[in-house]
Specification:
26% of the residues are buried. With 318 residues, this protein is mainly alpha-helical. It is elongated and about 85 Å long. The longest helix has 28 residues. The protein has 14 helices and 6 strands. The N and C termini lie far apart (90 Å). This is DUF7602 domain-containing protein. InterPro entries: DUF7602. It comes from Effrenium voratum.
């Protein structure tokens, strides 16, 4: 697929009609922004890299001088300035910013217009364009959150992934689009379709070394070893446990500083305690039941006895 110059001009004209953010109504700031864009595009020419929108945005973000609203307005700013050809996205490639007048000494590396691209579905094209428009840093975060869930032994269902993206500053709308970005990277991710009882799950094609399996996930039966149960009871009996609020996820997160277990294991442990009737809900907080309180009292007595015996042995040793 090749674009005629007329098509490029139509695309550029359409983008020029988009309004600019209020901050760029200041002509001096607008001119500085235009010069910054030009500097980034020219640097890509010098580096012999194609000046795709995502690459230009990446270099602008690195300066940390521009507001998110200004960066989003980059295509409109370029279209209104008249310095560039804005080549429409195609074949999974993002829009491209070509200088109408190439810099001195520039040697062409791909001609004035894009080369033929392999045929892709509309869904793949949309997803790849979305990925390119988000920038490399955001795309890296997509993998990081899935790898973190593997490390925590929590099955990476789409709600879990989206929640972690939101914690990294993604907007609700951006997090909702994440599944498209995962779906277009088939070499990296394997997407399990939703069922009546389970949402979409995003698996890595290559399981990380040392992965011990899922400890927590939708539909998974929670399990905890006797040692894990005794460990949590000991923390509670010693009065060291934090306030267990925020449901299972919040309680597990609060326990992480007291128990050397993965977050997934701690979630499973809390679920086991709930299932056995050792913890119960009181509003947003999880509290010990009478059954657990009796066990904790016994543990406290045992701890007191051990302390007394230990002190006696120390005196005899002296």
């Amino acid at each position: 697929m090749h674009f005629e110059l007329e098509e490029v001009e139509r695309f550029t004209a359409a983008l020029s009609e988009f309004p600019l953010p209020e901050s760029l109504e200041d002509m001096q700031r607008l001119e500085r922004f235009q010069m910054a864009i030009l500097s980034c595009v020219e640097s890509l020419y010098r580096d012999r890299e194609k000046p795709y929108l995502g690459q230009v945005l990446k270099r602008l973000r690195a300066t940390k001088l521009w507001l998110p609203s200004e960066l989003r307005a980059l295509p409109a700013v370029c279209a209104q300035e008249g310095r560039y050809y804005l080549v429409p996205p195609f074949g999974g490639l993002a829009p491209c910013l070509l200088l109408r007048c190439a810099p001195p000494g520039y040697t062409e590396w791909y001609g004035n217009m894009p080369l033929e691209a392999p045929a892709v579905s509309k869904e793949e094209e949309s997803a790849r364009n979305l990925r390119a428009g988000m920038g490399d840093a955001r795309c890296a975060q997509l993998r990081e959150v899935v790898e973190d869930l593997y490390a925590d032994r929590i099955e990476p269902s789409l709600p879990e992934v989206q929640e972690r993206l939101r914690l990294r500053g993604w907007s609700f709308a951006e997090a909702q689009q994440a599944v498209l970005l995962y779906a277009c990277q088939k070499e990296t991710y394997r997407i399990c379709k939703p069922t009546a009882s389970k949402p979409v799950v995003v698996f890595l094609q290559e399981t990380p070394p040392g992965f011990e399996g899922w400890a927590d996930g939708i539909g998974l039966l929670p399990e905890a070893s006797p040692d894990m149960e005794l460990g949590l009871k000991s923390v509670l009996a010693a009065g060291l446990a934090p306030r267990l609020s925020g449901g299972v996820a919040g309680a597990a997160a609060a326990l992480q500083s007291h128990c050397r277990r993965s977050l997934g294991e701690l979630r499973a442990l809390v679920r086991v305690f709930l299932k056995k009737g050792l913890l119960c809900y009181s509003g947003d907080e999880l509290l010990p039941t009478e059954q657990l309180k009796a066990e904790l009292n016994w543990l406290q007595e045992r701890l007191s006895e051990l302390i007394v015996v230990g002190a006696h042995e120390v005196r005899l040793g002296m």
